[in-house]
Automatic annotation (TrEMBL):
PANTHER family: 5-NITROIMIDAZOLE ANTIBIOTICS RESISTANCE PROTEIN, NIMA-FAMILY-RELATED PROTEIN-RELATED, FLAVIN-NUCLEOTIDE-BINDING PROTEIN
Pfam families attached to this UniProt entry: Pyridox_ox_2
Highest taxon of the lineage: Bacteria
The protein's name: Pyridoxamine 5'-phosphate oxidase family protein
Species this chain originates from: Pseudoduganella dura
Length: 213
């Protein structure tokens, strides 16, 4: 895959470096396919890694939370590490040692910054569109009280690294004769049929009807 120079020493991919990439297009695709990121930070109680809904606008990854959140406060005070992983398959080799996974992953370093009031509403509207394109125009928009209780944070994608694997197992030559099945067990995210709320009498809009497409 396309690889450019690592932006920092902590984004250098050393183990299986051939799987690494610093291509922004690869990074953007991994983020755009994600619903959740994991954000690691520290406080006086130790190290924490919290799953958070995420979305991307340009060269930033966004998250949001309550103003009183411990994590929201800490992320504005210190550097952190954000990770995203998609597992695409289990790779079964002829030897236990060479089993692997097909995956797409990204690691982002840096410090979150608070999105100002002028940018908060567009950012949250973009989040709604990330969840379901067309949804923002149908629901009640957030009111002043709701926006005032919410903090939106963003982290630049300038210091990041991606790592991916695809394809069949990589067996050692001396193991190719072994009578063990080898190959890939694919995994994918499946979209189920939409389930309307019991009290909803509204016909499903186009983006709901297309959910399984």
């Amino acid at each position: 895959m396309n690889t450019t120079t690592a932006p920092s020493t902590r984004t250098q991919v050393k183990r299986s470096a051939n799987r690494g990439s610093h291509d922004p297009a690869v990074l953007h695709a991994i983020i755009d396919a994600a619903w959740v990121c994991h954000t690691a930070f520290t406080d006086e109680h130790g190290v924490h890694c919290i799953p958070m809904a995420c979305w991307r606008l340009g060269d930033y990854l966004y998250i949001h939370g309550s103003n009183g959140s411990r994590m929201v406060r800490r992320l504005q005070e210190q550097d952190c590490c954000v990770t995203i992983t998609h597992v695409d398959g289990l790779v079964l080799a002829r030897s236990a040692f060479n089993h692997s996974m097909n995956y797409r992953s990204a690691v982002i370093y840096g410090r979150f910054e608070t999105v100002d009031e002028a940018g908060k509403r567009p950012a949250l509207e973009a989040f709604m569109e990330h969840l379901a394109p067309g949804r923002q125009g149908e629901v009640r928009p957030g009111n002043d009280k709701e926006y005032a209780a919410t903090t939106v944070l963003r982290i630049a994608l300038a210091e990041a690294a991606c790592k991916t694997r695809s394809g069949p197992p990589e067996d050692d030559e001396e193991d190719l004769h072994l009578p063990a099945w080898a190959g890939v067990l694919p995994l994918r995210e499946a979209r189920g049929a939409p389930v309307a709320d019991a009290g909803c009498g509204i016909a499903a809009p186009a983006y709901v009807q297309r959910w399984q497409d």
